[in-house]
Amino acid sequence: MQTPTIGRIVMVKGYSNRGTDEHPAIVNFVYEVEKPNEFGEQAYRIDCTVFPRGAAPFHVETIDLVDTRTEAAELLKKGVDHSVEMVAFWPPRV
Question: Average pLDDT for residues 50-72, to the nearest whole number?
Answer without folding.
Answer: 93
